[in-house]
Design a protein that fits this description.
CATH topology of the largest domain: Rossmann fold
Strand content: 15-25%
Mean pLDDT: 77
Low-confidence stretches: 33-51, 179-185
Largest sheet: 5 strands, parallel
Number of domains: 2
Oligomer: single chain
CATH class of the largest domain: Alpha Beta
Radius of gyration: 17 Å
Helix content: 25-40%
Shape: globular
CATH superfamily of the largest domain: Response regulator
Strand order of the largest sheet: 5-4-6-7-8
Structural class: alpha/beta
Number of helices: 6
Number of strands: 8
Length: 185
Amino acid sequence: MVGLVSVRSVAGDFARWTARAKELPRPIEGHWPERSRIGSAVMCAKRSHPPDSVSSPLILFVDDFEDARDLYAEYFVFRGFRVALSSNGADAIAKARELAPAVVVMDLRMPGMDGWEATRQLKSDARTATIPVVALTAHAFMDVEMRARQAGCDDVIIKPCLPEELLVRVEKTLKGRRYRKPQPA
């Protein structure tokens, strides 16, 4: 059997492993320690309605690769953010309209509606035009940053990107937007 095993961990808290092989009908996944507090938080995040719904910025992660979405979601939840997840451009637009996230982290290359077109549509819609879009892409061509900014991206990060690096860029974007936590009425 030929395949791939990946492990992601956060010091002192949890590790998540995934095994993939052609011979397996689907990937096998697990957590150690089993169902850590981070794993539970990500389950809330996947529903887009975590318990503390107004206490921290909401980040919408858009990527067709589930492992990438989960990796960033787990890390951002651990760091105190709320997260919502999307696997394609069309769904990202609908969720951005519904949830009004503080930032959208957008993969540019996806099947169906890609991140380029989704970003253009977000920026041309008055309901979502002011939401910052951070492009996260494996495109390493010299003109990708210029093209992404022309499409409406506020920042561009080349993959691979560690969650810590992405956090720094998202926080910088939030600072530029002067994010303020919603105040109780």
